[in-house]
Specification:
- It is built from three helices and eight strands; from the N terminus they run E-E-H-H-E-E-E-E-E-E-H.
- By secondary structure, it is of the alpha+beta class.
- It has a three-stranded antiparallel beta sheet with strand order 1-2-3, with helices on one face. The chain has a three-stranded antiparallel beta sheet with strand order 4-5-8, with no helix packed on it. It has a two-stranded antiparallel sheet with strand order 6-7.
- The chain starts with 7 loop residues before the first strand and ends in a 5-residue tail after the last helix.
């Protein structure tokens, strides 16, 4: 049986930021966009109270791996983040593939991943797949392309 996925949640009272560490490729976009919220050396490392709800949503939509997501705390179901490219711009419905220079293959849209053991996993928004072969979380990217100086 596979490892249980760790999911961390951080709230500013109005919005809850959800972080899935195994999906994170450590692109650093979150830290660069909202350094007062995301501090990899801090405890906790995400402090959503340091930004507006709108700023948090805009940043989360830029997450290239989908490791960050959010939900509103008002009890009303809100549609999840729409599919967006790495700049955060919305993309047309359907599936789109983006090859990142020296990095992962980003698949935008809804998809189902079938593993070698036959198990399946549904993905939405953005999924980052390893191109370098060094990921410890295959088939997904874990950022090791930086460690091995992958060029491609």
């Amino acid at each position: 049986m596979g490892e249980r996925e760790i999911i961390k949640e951080y709230s500013n009272g109005e919005l809850t930021v959800v972080w899935k560490p195994r999906s994170c490729i450590h692109s650093g976009i979150c830290v660069a966009t909202l350094p007062d919220v995301y501090d990899p050396m801090g405890k906790p490392w995400i402090k959503p109270e340091n930004a507006t709800t709108e700023a948090l949503k805009a940043q989360i939509l830029k997450c290239p791996s989908g490791a960050l997501s959010f939900y509103k705390n008002n009890g009303k179901k809100e549609a999840g983040p729409e599919a967006s490219d790495s700049s955060g711009a919305p993309i047309a419905s359907g599936t789109r593939v983006e090859v990142k220079a020296n990095g992962p293959l980003l698949v935008h849209g809804e998809l189902e991943v079938t593993r070698p053991d036959g198990s399946t996993e549904s993905k939405s928004r953005i999924t980052a797949f390893c191109r370098c072969g060094a990921s410890g979380n295959k088939p997904y990217c874990d950022g090791n392309h930086k460690t091995v100086a992958f060029k491609g």
